Amino acid sequence: MPSTYSFDIVSDFDRQELVNAVDQTIREIKSRYDLKDTKTTVELGEESITINTDSDFTLDAVHTVIRTKAAKRELSQKIFEYGKVEAASGNRVRQEITLKKGISQEYSKKITKLIRDEFKKVQASIQGDSVRVTSKSKDDLQNIIQRLKQEDLPIALQFTNYR
Q1: What is the mean pLDDT of the chain?
Q2: Disulfide: which of 10, 118, 126, 127 matches 108 by Cβ 3.0-4.6 Å?
């Protein structure tokens, strides 16, 4: 029986689920009557999704489709960071959606401060783009997970390596 228990707080998403959500979005765009003739493209890159379409109205419709497909695949809406809408050639609009992965130093510090302030017997340490939490009590770790789920941070949090 280990004398200390730990888990990692990370911000990540399932890449394959995102690929599937984007594929479904493209399929729906091709079949929906209001989007069919807009020549809309949705391209998934390593760290972003690029949408190219004919108007702000169809861009909003594509956003809704992507968000719906992502939600059905249990991807957090917080992984999407919408860039500004740019004018593209031929009266079209383009937008890049950055995919957020990893916890920034700023949020790592906020999380560790919250844990230090509210849970005195627990250690939290920043490790790159994740936070490691250790404690002698499993109950404390469960309480921390519950507390962080209540906190409304603009990043998606997952709890891994619970042992």
Answers
A1: 92
A2: 126
Contacts of 97 (CB under 8 A, 6+ apart): 48, 49, 50, 51, 66, 80, 81, 82, 83
Longest dimension (CA), the chain: 66
**CA end-to-end span of the chain:** 11
pLDDT surpasses 90 at 3: no
Pairing of strands 130-135, 5-10: antiparallel
Tokens of 128: 């790159």
- Using CA atoms, how far apart are residues 116 and 32, in angstroms rounded to an integer? 51
pLDDT digits (tens, 9 = 90+) for 17-34: 999 999 999 999 999 999
Contact 21, 13 (CB under 8 A): no
Q: How far apart are CA 13 and CA 134, in angstroms?
A: 23
The CA distances from residue 41 to 62, 147, 156, in Å, are 10, 40, 26
